[in-house]
Specification:
Elements: H1 2-5, E1 14-18, E2 36-39, H2 42-50, E3 56-57, H3 64-77, H4 84-87, E4 91-92, E5 95-96, H5 97-100, H6 102-125, E6 130-134, H7 135-141, E7 148-151, E8 162-170, E9 180-188, H8 189-206, E10 216-221, H9 229-234, E11 240-245, H10 255-264, E12 267-269, H11 271-274, H12 277-294, H13 301-307, E13 309-310, E14 313-314, H14 316-347, E15 352-355, H15 361-372, E16 376-380, H16 392-397, E17 407-410, H17 413-421, E18 429-431, H18 435-442, E19 451-455, H19 470-489, E20 494-497, H20 506-513, E21 517-519, E22 532-537, H21 543-549, E23 554-556, H22 567-570, E24 575-576, H23 582-591, H24 593-610, H25 617-627
Parallel strand pairs: 1-2, 1-6, 2-3, 6-7, 10-11, 10-15, 11-12, 15-16, 16-17, 17-18, 19-20, 19-22, 20-21, 22-23, 23-24
Antiparallel strand pairs: 4-5, 8-9, 13-14
Helix pairs in contact: 3-6, 12-14, 14-15, 19-20
Length: about 625
């Protein structure tokens, strides 16, 4: 660090950019009283705050208009693969590889451009300053000043995504005196793959189901056994061969899920059942040949220099190393997935394929190969969606209005009408319900009023740049804390169930507020609903439907009003609240049985409009699969 400090011209004009790639030890050789520090994400803000180090927040140097510009530009620029100068070089097996990861490119861009505009603004505000920055930010600041020195750090963006795996061990009741604890595992992509390989090799040994020649053959993609056990239990009653193909989770992971799959007669396929030495060699050669043709992307500097612009300024020089590394990784993943999927489709004579989305990497590959092989595709509604005008741009960009599928299975007529209104052909849409909800309707539960349940969302998916801002993240955490305080002040017990995709310090917040708060990490929220008296949610979530089915009152406190007001609120399916009126609403629900009955009745009315085939959707979907003459359009 001495060589850095010796280069300073003015010890009073020094700035350190501290981001999540850095550790507090990276600052130990700096005399911080001579520096102005900037945090560049929530994690770095948290580290500096915990160490009582004064700092500025980079978010404060961009405007709401900047955030909107970042969002619009990222959506536009994520379609780089469509440009004629580059698209012909991205072709592989009849697909444009750049399109397969356009969503991931969008997420990469909103994070990069947010930092880019922040640094641009800071460098203008603090002229004639010296900047000390991490490797991740070095290429950006170099676009605006030469007075910059890189701080070597051990961690850089490597696109090896991690997944948080929550596990509850022991007691099921959060307030039980029996021993139990929660564990949160952070698994890298490599570790996830290693665990999945072990499970898949076990599958090879116990996968004994056989194809029946006279039956249709259907591919079920990532349709999990436990959640859709009702659907799997009905399969033997229909003349269908079911091929269960999972890439996210193992086909089964305990005796219960193994039993569900085995009794269904489904055949399990995965990477281990499809990959052999010949295919692995082909994949390696194909990846090498593709990269030799296209790599490095910097050979197309003139195109990218002109294309990747914001505010009429090119940011390619700052972006190209990050983007090239990202694309190289994604191209290799794409080619591997394409070749494995091709082998799967060659192995069986599929009538149709059932999928959850049209935007994700693996689903796009299946769609393309299905069309090439004249196999029809069925899109199935997966979640409780925002049905608002404000959400339409996101629905279009993320392809949540399915345009490529031959059929669309939705939960009921409200979503059918919403899809039709937004350009989906009515003849494609089948309002057949959800097997998961049918299972809930037909299950007997023990109902109690032991606690209030808070279902957190934590803006889990970061669709828009605002959700990356420290101010918004802190506002969310403060809302959770305030809800905890309100419930505690009413002498009620509270159980918090964080969203399975993202945790946001809920355990820490609960510990700060009081003992009568428990946080349940991992598993389905469903078992927590029957013992609750009231459920509070912080966003539109499928849990709302679960709660309404179980006839519990739901309170929705919106944390992202920019997505608009959905019909579940417009039709009084649940109660809308804010921090100012939450306490009075809770008091009324806890003391006024007539009010509770009216709220539950209103929720039932919404359900009757939103869900079809509430108790028999599995049979109706399997009947449709058995009787429909599938032809790819």
């Amino acid at each position: 660090m001495e060589f850095i400090l010796s280069t300073l011209n003015n010890p009073n004009k020094q700035i350190i950019f501290f981001d999540s790639s850095m550790k507090i030890d990276d600052l130990k050789n700096f005399s911080l009283q001579n520096f102005t520090l900037f945090s560049f994400d929530y994690e770095s803000h948290q580290i500096l705050s915990q160490n009582n180090i004064p700092h500025k927040i980079s978010d404060d140097y961009i405007t709401q208009n900047d955030l909107r510009n970042i969002e619009i530009s990222s959506m536009k620029l994520s379609n780089w693969y469509q440009e004629l100068q580059i698209s012909k070089f991205l072709q592989y097996s009849g697909m444009n590889l750049g399109e397969l990861f356009y969503v991931e490119t969008y997420y990469l861009l909103i994070k990069f451009l947010k930092k880019y505009l922040e640094i641009k603004s800071i460098s203008k505000t603090f002229k004639n300053f010296s900047f000390y920055v991490s490797t991740n930010l070095f290429s950006i600041i170099k676009s605006f000043t030469d007075s910059v020195i890189e701080i070597p750090v051990s961690h850089q963006d490597n696109f090896n995504e991690s997944l948080q795996i929550p596990l509850r061990i022991g007691r099921k009741n959060p307030f039980s005196k029996l021993p139990g604890f929660d564990v949160l595992f952070n698994l890298s992509t490599n570790k996830q793959d290693a665990i999945k390989i072990i499970s898949e090799r076990l599958t090879q040994r116990i996968n004994k189901a056989q194809i029946k020649k006279d039956n249709k053959t259907i591919l079920l993609y990532n349709i999990t056994a436990q959640k859709f056990s009702d659907f799997y239990s009905q399969i033997p009653n229909f003349p269908l061969n079911m091929i269960k193909y999972d890439t996210n989770l193992p086909a089964y992971w305990n005796h219960k899920t193994y039993s569900i799959v085995k009794k269904s007669g489904s055949i399990v396929e995965n990477y281990e059942t499809l990959l052999d030495d010949t295919l692995e060699k082909k994949i390696s050669e194909s990846i090498e040949n593709f990269h030799n043709t296209l790599n490095p992307l910097t050979n197309f500097d003139d195109f990218f220099q002109a294309f990747f612009q914001i505010e009429n300024n090119s940011f390619w020089n700052s972006f190209k190393f990050l983007f090239s590394k990202f694309c190289k990784n994604k191209f290799s993943q794409s080619i591997k997935q394409i070749e494995i999927t091709k082998k799967l489709l060659e192995k069986y004579n599929f009538s149709t394929i059932m999928l959850w989305s049209e935007d994700r990497f693996e689903e796009q590959i299946l769609y393309n190969l299905a069309k090439q092989n004249k196999i029809s595709v069925i899109f199935s509604q997966h979640g409780f969606e925002f049905d608002t005008d404000e959400m339409i741009p996101y629905m279009n960009f993320f392809r949540w209005f399915p345009s490529r599928s031959d059929f669309i299975i939705v939960w009921g007529n409200m979503m059918k009408e919403w899809f039709i209104k937004n350009g989906v052909a009515a003849k494609k849409i089948k309002a057949l319900g959800s097997p998961y909800f049918s299972k809930i309707f037909s299950t007997k539960f023990k109902f109690k009023n032991d606690y209030i349940l808070l279902a957190c969302d934590a803006k889990a998916f970061d669709y828009v740049p605002e959700e990356l801002c420290v101010k918004n993240i802190l506002e969310y955490k403060n809302k959770i804390k305030k809800i905890c305080q309100i419930v505690t002040n009413l002498n009620e017990k509270l159980v918090i169930k964080p969203h399975p995709s993202k945790y946001s310090d809920e355990k820490k917040i609960a510990k700060e507020v009081g003992r009568n708060i428990k946080v349940v990490m991992g598993g389905d929220i469903l078992p927590l609903i029957p013992p609750s008296s009231i459920v509070i949610t912080t966003n539109i979530t499928t849990a709302i439907i679960q709660v309404l089915i179980l006839k519990k009152p739901v309170i929705l406190i919106r944390t992202n009003s920019y997505y608009g007001k959905p019909d579940v609120l417009n039709l009084n399916g649940c109660i809308e609240a804010n921090l100012e009126n939450l306490e009075s609403i809770l008091k009324k629900l806890l003391s006024d049985k007539k009010y509770v009955n009216d709220v539950v009745k209103s929720g039932n009315n919404f359900l009757s409009k939103y869900l079809s085939n509430t108790t028999n959707s599995s049979k109706e979907i399997l009947k449709f699969l058995s009787e429909e003459k599938f032809e790819s359009r």
